[in-house]
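User: Please fill in residues for this 221-position structure.
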């Protein structure tokens, strides 16, 4: 049986329609739908128990409630998103709180260079800290003017639109600041550590142990 990484390697996207060069990354196809992809089950929450935990290379660990995060300045951005399984979606609109506004409330140690994003259920993905400080990096709770659906990450997901979408963890629960980089779930399973869609950084070069299957609930909104 082919692994997810192997299947994606074999699949080919049709040539990009003209006019999209520079906007549609190589090997991607545009979709109007919003595919749903994840491992495991959609988590269920009692929001009174929900927290976002910050730990690792910080002077003090911190725990945020949903209300505390919602009290931070809110931003709406419009952006394109690109999934390693070869779909891209243009002009998606997200509302959320900027990662860097959460950072302002933390005492992150100067040695911290990477972040492990921790999410339910048992999902994690690594991103360089510098990549999280931009204008369009959000802890998002709304998509196209509506609250996120549970399958797309309600109550809170990360949005890192300049990297393949597996870096945009749904159901986030924590940020771990790190001195040294460490691979997350897909990064340990055949996918690229950094994941820039415009440089087509889909796979890691190494021969790693690959997962048996890709996603379990192939679904769209
Ligand atoms: N917690 C969690 N977040 C996740 C995943 C997951 O399995 N668990 N899958 C990732 C992958 S591989 C993709 S492509 C996107 C899909 O987001 P969507 O379902 O909103 O399109 O979520 C990412 N975030
Ligand atoms: Mo994905």
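Assistant: Residues filled in for all 221 positions:
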């Amino acid at each position: 049986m082919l692994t997810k990484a192997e299947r994606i390697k074999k699949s080919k996207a049709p040539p990009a329609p003209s006019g999209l060069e520079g906007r549609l990354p190589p090997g991607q196809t545009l979709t109007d739908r919003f595919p749903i992809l994840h491992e495991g089950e959609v988590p269920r929450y009692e929001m009174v128990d929900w927290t976002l935990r910050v730990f690792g290379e910080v002077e003090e660990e911190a725990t945020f409630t949903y209300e505390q995060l919602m009290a931070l300045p809110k931003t709406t951005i419009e952006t394109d998103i690109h999934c390693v399984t070869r779909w891209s979606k243009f002009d998606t609109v997200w509302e959320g709180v900027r990662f860097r506004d959460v950072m302002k409330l933390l005492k992150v140690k100067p040695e911290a260079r990477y972040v492990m994003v921790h999410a339910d259920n048992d999902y994690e993905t690594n991103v360089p800290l510098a990549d999280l400080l931009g204008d369009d990096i959000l802890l998002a709770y709304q998509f196209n003017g509506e609250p996120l659906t549970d399958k797309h990450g309600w109550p809170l997901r990360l949005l890192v639109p300049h990297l393949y979408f597996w870096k945009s963890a749904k159901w986030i629960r924590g940020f771990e600041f790190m001195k040294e980089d460490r691979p997350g779930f897909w990064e340990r399973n055949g996918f690229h550590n950094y994941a820039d869609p415009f440089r087509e950084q889909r796979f890691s070069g190494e021969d790693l142990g690959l997962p048996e299957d890709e996603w379990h609930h192939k679904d769209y909104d």
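For context: The mean pLDDT is 91.
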